[in-house]
Design brief:
- With 152 residues, the chain is an all-alpha fold.
- Helix content is 69%, strand content 0%.
- The protein is built from eight helices and no strands.
- It has helices spanning 3-20, 25-36, 42-49, 57-66, 71-74, 83-114, 119-126, 130-142.
- Helix 2 crosses helix 3 (42-49) and helix 2 (25-36) packs across helix 4.
- It is rod-shaped, with a radius of gyration of 28 Å.
Length: 152
């Protein structure tokens, strides 16, 4: 869900809650202002309901309090795209594995220093850059060698 869609969906929830109490936007502004301890203009409510004004967490909690509901209820229907979070986690796992691989390569370098006669055999089979590994994974993904995860 895009940012403007999130605002529109949330705004619709606020409008529905306000209308269920038969309040005007001015009345909601007054109630919200009281909950926040500051003056709130009715134009703020118009912009929130229209999805044109982001709401802080403090305002979300205050709105929920005014409507005698929970922030979660006001956020019903708001969907957040989490693909980037999964990608960040995958990159984090990759970085951790890369660090472990670099330590292993350090150990291997020590072994090769002590056993020079095995260098060429190991060099031919093991030394690839991380970039080459990513290229290989992408090639395999593009050629559908990796099945889709189940449950998606």
């Amino acid at each position: 869900m895009k940012t403007d869609e999130i605002g529109a969906t949330f705004g619709a929830q606020v409008k529905q809650a306000r209308e269920s109490l038969q309040w005007s936007q001015a009345e909601l502004a007054k109630q919200l202002g009281h909950a926040l301890g500051k003056e709130v203009n009715a134009l703020v409510i118009t912009r929130i309901e229209g999805g044109k004004r982001p709401v802080s967490i403090v305002e979300l909690v205050a709105l929920a309090s005014v409507f005698k509901t929970t922030p979660g209820k006001l956020l019903e229907g708001v969907e957040v795209d989490t693909d980037h979070i999964e990608a960040d986690r995958a990159v984090g796992r990759w970085v951790m594995r890369e660090a472990a691989a670099r330590r292993a390569l350090g150990d291997l370098a020590g072994f090769l220093r002590d056993h020079p006669h095995t260098r060429e055999t190991i060099r031919a089979s093991l030394f690839r850059t991380v970039g080459e590994e990513v290229d290989e994974i992408m090639r395999r993904l593009d050629s559908a060698e990796f099945p889709e995860p189940s449950g998606t």
